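Quick one, tokens below. Sequence please?
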């Protein structure tokens, strides 16, 4: 399953970012976006109201092709937000968007992509 709920009332014109969007992610109750403006925004899938915003999540850029990071993010099966920052991956709980204590760090290279195994999701 892709995690996309076909019942969502898609609404055009959701505004928020001031620079090109790098990535989007869809969970069962939320959708999220990261953009070249350095923001990560999370929206309630039903109302489309913003429920969480992280400022300066990654370096700002005006061009997707020149962006140092790819803004990778996804939701796990519990709708927790998994985000790739420059050299680490962090998980935020969907209840209060608190950071899970453990983070995964890369020693040498930028984290550009994320994936979750369906078995472990």
């Amino acid at each position: 399953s892709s995690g996309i709920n076909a019942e969502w009332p898609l609404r055009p014109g959701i505004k928020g970012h001031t620079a090109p969007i790098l990535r989007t992610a869809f969970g069962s109750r939320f959708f999220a976006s990261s953009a070249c403006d350095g923001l990560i925004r999370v929206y309630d899938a039903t109302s489309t109201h913003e429920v969480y915003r992280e400022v300066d999540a990654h370096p700002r850029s005006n061009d997707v092709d020149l962006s140092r990071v790819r803004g990778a993010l996804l939701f796990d099966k519990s709708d927790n937000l998994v985000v790739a920052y420059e050299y680490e991956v962090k998980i935020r709980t969907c209840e209060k968007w608190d950071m899970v204590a453990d983070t995964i760090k890369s020693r040498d290279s930028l984290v550009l992509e994320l994936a979750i195994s369906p078995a472990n999701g």
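Strands lie at 21-26, 30-35, 40-44, 50-54, 73-75, 81-84, 88-92, 104-105. The chain is about 0% helix and 30% strand.
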